[in-house]
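FORM 7B - TANDEM STRUCTURE REPORT

SECTION 1: FIRST PROTEIN
SEQUENCE AND TOKENS:
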Amino acid sequence: MNRWVRSLDAVDTGVRAVRRRWYATPLPRRRDWQAVAGSAVVGLTVAVTAVASTGPWDSGQRTAERGWAADREPDSGQGHTGDGHSDDSRPGRPDDGAAPRPGAPPVLGALGSEGSPPSGKGLGKAFKKLLKDPALGNRTTFSVGDALTGKELYAGGGDDAVVPASTIKIATGAAVLTALGPEHRIPTRTVWDAKKKRVVLVGGGDPTLTEKQFASLATATARSLKKRGLKPTALGYDTSRYSGPDRHPIGVNDNIAPLTPLMVNSGRTDDSVKGPAPRALDPSADAAERFAGLLRDRGVATERTVSAKVAKGWTEAIDGREKDHPGNDGDGGDDGRPGTELGVHRSAPMSSLVERMLLNSDNDIAEALARQTALATGRTADFGGAEKAVRSQLKKLDLPMKGTRFADGSGLSRADRVSATFLTALLARAAEPDRAALRPLLTGLPVAGFNGTLGGRYGTPETERGAGLVRAKTGTLTGVNSLAGTVVDAEGRLLTFALVTTGAKDSRAAQNALDALAGRLADCGCR
């Protein structure tokens, strides 16, 4: 017995020494270590859920692949999994690497599966004092779930639909990924209008189009015109892909540009690429004038720039031809018939657009993706059509939809409503083995204390324990603050969480209180 007590004392002494060394380490160094550890566990969890769908498995190796290897290399003792794309880091793509030898224990199978998740009682005890912080305002609703099982572990008002602010962007991302898939790209095209002898610039709804990409499209268009001997008299620009009002209900605001399918750099009039900025009053007309100038610089002069609409079915016909013969950005077809594509630029894949939206809380991308969801489901690309489309796609995920309202895609509207339980359930869906298309909802979340909208947070003594371990989407409106994402707890378990406050008078103080709650999950075993 004495020997056992001495052993415990030795362990406790070692733990205390490690803790003293940890807290003596400068905060930036601690953040680096936490980020590496947190990213590793999140990555392993995602890898487990991704490869679990490709079974059956035996001792960490797919049985079919082990049999294949044994048939061909009987002396090797094992085969190697993988499809030759081990350097592919796109969301949802597993990197199997070398499988363990037959009979060896699974390398990843034990992650989060042998230990138990936190208990509701333990989480309640951990949250009790923090929830009394007056900075949280009049009301706080919350939900904590287990990413591995999808089970809700602890909640307070979790089923109540409340104003979520920008955390609704998680739902917007889920809807567009479900409707179009992670590889879809948004095209911006130039088309020849033979009847009126003009080039038509057709906006597809890509707010991320850059000056350099726009110039490349002009180069491709000029090349196509010269190749065919076509001499346009005018440049038209088509914004008919969107319908409804071109302003968000909040009105003119530096947080969002007018809603149009044709713009360059989200209509910004400065050199910024994210965050609030002055915007053009008519981004599509400005883009068209800029494109006319780019064509002129490339030897193609047009007499005027006019609003136009390509003939019905032209872009649909081009889309159909591309499905049969997919091509790269650049010149279009070889003839000069009406509807001939002269040039095209395609956006980054939808997975990247969703990640960028979540990382920087980009309102322009969010509203564009809501409208892409509407178009993909045959609805009008306006607020009403987008809401119906988003709802229809989210219903496919079997989520708790009671009381939800998707009045916009960005969360700027106070008419939006979702529950904390809805958000944690959605994040859990994104980690499921058979939903790899939703993985950008996890990989796009900002890392506490490091990047995106969480880059300047988690630097106080009350919150620093969550730095590098919490990944979450932020939300802020006057009197509303929210935080929803994932966190690795003290036992290495990946949890989902959502926290929403209403009535806070000091936004910064409310954010700090939410960060403290999420950070408490990071160092809590709570069993």
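SECTION 2: SECOND PROTEIN
SEQUENCE AND TOKENS:
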Amino acid sequence: MINNKKIINWLNNKDEVDSEEVSKIFVSEIKSDKLIKEKDFLLDDLDNIKKIVKVFSKKPWVAQSEICKQLKINKERLIKINAIISQSEMMQNLILKKGIANKYWNSIIPFASLTDKTLKNEYSFPRRIALFPGLSCMFYCGFCGRNQTAKYPLNILDDSLKMYKKLFDESPEHTAYSISGGLEPLTNFKLGEIIKYANESGKRMPVITNGYSLTPNYLNNNPGLLDADSIRISLYGVDTDSYEFITRVKKAYKQVKNNTINFLKVRNEKKKDLKFGFNFIVIPENLNQLIELPKLISEINSEVHNGIGVNFLTLRDDYQSVTNHSEKRDVERKYRLEKSMNFKEREKLKENILKFEENKKKLCPDLYVDYGYSLESLFKGHQDSGLIKIKGNKMRKFGFTQISLAIDLFGDVFLFREAGFLNREGNKKMIIGRISKDVSLEEIIKKYLQKNIPLDLEEDDSRFMDSFDHVITSLVNQAEEDKKFGIPFDLGPIKSRKENIKMMLGNNWYSETT
């Protein structure tokens, strides 16, 4: 029934298409599962159930107070309706898997059960930790928030390795890790040892890199890199000129492409299960490059003769850590991109996604494509307004240490991920302490929470959040509002928000599994 085309079309259409037939399906589901006694089943309830399912499939962060207001019902009635929806496997699947917000739900569900501890400022070891082990970066991207003059000292690498090993040893089984930046991870020539130890400790480690240093020599010196769960290279263009425009490095395109081909050959020879892919951030300046990506990937694959080529591609919106913020911020840089995508450009992007899909089917049909949070709706043919974004004054004043943190090469612990650039202007207040080979993360978090001193937030502090931080902030804000209203997540319409769901992987870019 869940694959019934009419009900899925109804779900994702702003109009009430096939409404009568959909109503019959809902009534059949409710009666078959004995979700409500027939004498209590009112026509108004059916309409309201359908509306709630539809709303949550599009807007996971909608508050219960807003639902009451929209439907003109009281809290007691909504709680009864929520019980029906949360007990229905069909309705849960419609909301979580078949709507245009399914990528948001994939991120929300593993963390929803931690929102109560977050609101109470109770200690819990973070469910997800981003590691930033890079020493420096050779690119100067205009949308990146890093201080482009800052570098870590080389002489800290041994202590940092011991620190990360201690962190893995102390981490609960359910904590998921990832390696990214911060600065470019492959500038750390002990990266292979970090990944190898994490793997031996039972931690699956996805790695994000710009690929510039992924040379044959680096691989020879860092065989532990092949112990990563996946490696994703951030693509900044489709040819020499487009790459240079973003990175300001002329030979970047050629080197990254050659490194990719060599790595895939080595991967196929030594570690076939390691997943490899690209990420491409779509901005107004590169809208048409999207169409050319399948050609580039096909060219790379054609040079790999000993097995498969690129496994996956992730397409992402710019979450505007730099763009759309004051020019007085983050001034330590060669240049900055200022433009954010307008409605007309998003219409163009929707057209280009269709062209991209046509080229993908012809040139690399086996490529798995992850459209991320907001581009998923464009892929499904719906116009949207881009990523959900929270203003700085709506950020959590204690972060959400129970859910997510970032840790750099010094061991500095950051509440929000985009704050984790070395010496980024204004980021000091986002640091809650420093772990080391002698000081544990648990000690740092408990001490921070016991101080009970909230952040002094400004509207522009939203630049310290990446897309995941925006989503989790929305989730915690929603939990707080629902709790105050008297319908907490336990009484809400989403069953899995009440469950303690374990996750073993910090980033899964190559399948629908969360």
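SECTION 3: OBSERVATIONS ON SECOND PROTEIN
The chain has a mean pLDDT of 91.
Strands lie at 128-132, 176-179, 206-209, 230-235, 275-282, 312-317, 368-370, 404-408, 412-414, 431-434.

SECTION 4: SIGNATURE
Preparer initials: ____
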